[in-house]
Specification:
Shape: globular
Strand order of the largest sheet: 1-2-3-6-5-4
Number of strands: 13
């Protein structure tokens, strides 16, 4: 095996391990998604990954679970914000630099508190746009990768290991 491929693999593993403390599993009425700690006590996740009603639980890295409260939902941008009484969780730092088409992207999610990962490439990178539901979004980055259902709402990470946004399946109808 080429040393270069082994180095890439080691770097990807290190990136997932470094970001895993900021990524959680989100469970709501038979639905599972991922989310990431945006600020102390606040988790961002995909609105489409949440049930319309009922209890929401967040499973932290390591498997401990806690009740979360929905603070806000915006179906027009597919973003939901949860409050969780866990100030010790490490927020993910998001950058505003957009990756270019052809750049590698790592989607980091969580399932049952354990990290998941998928490697892909940026197929489209564009500025502000309006979603099919009328939501205003700062940037649109489309990935060419197979995302696990439970990874929706996790982090999209560039080759430098920096979080560039939330990994979602894209605009769709419920």
């Amino acid at each position: 095996m080429s040393r270069t491929i082994q180095d890439l693999s080691t770097a990807l593993e290190g990136t997932v391990a470094r970001l895993a403390p900021s990524v959680v599993s989100v469970i709501s009425h038979r639905m599972q998604a991922s989310g990431f700690v945006w600020r102390a006590g606040l988790v961002v996740t995909s609105d489409e990954g949440l049930a319309e009603e009922g209890e929401v639980r967040v499973t932290m890295p390591g498997g401990e679970s806690a009740l979360a409260h929905v603070v806000g939902r915006d179906p027009s941008t597919a973003i939901a914000l949860l409050r969780i009484d866990r100030p010790e969780l490490q927020p993910a730092a998001l950058i505003t630099t957009m990756p270019s088409p052809g750049a590698l992207i790592l989607a980091v999610g969580a399932e049952g508190g354990a990290p998941t990962a998928a490697l892909g490439v940026v197929s489209v990178s564009a500025g502000a746009w309006q979603s099919m539901r009328g939501g205003e979004i700062d940037a649109r980055i489309e990935l060419d990768t197979r995302l696990r259902a439970t990874a929706e709402g996790g982090l999209a990470v560039n080759a430098a290991g920096e979080a560039v946004g939330m990994a979602v399946f894209g605009p769709r109808r419920r």
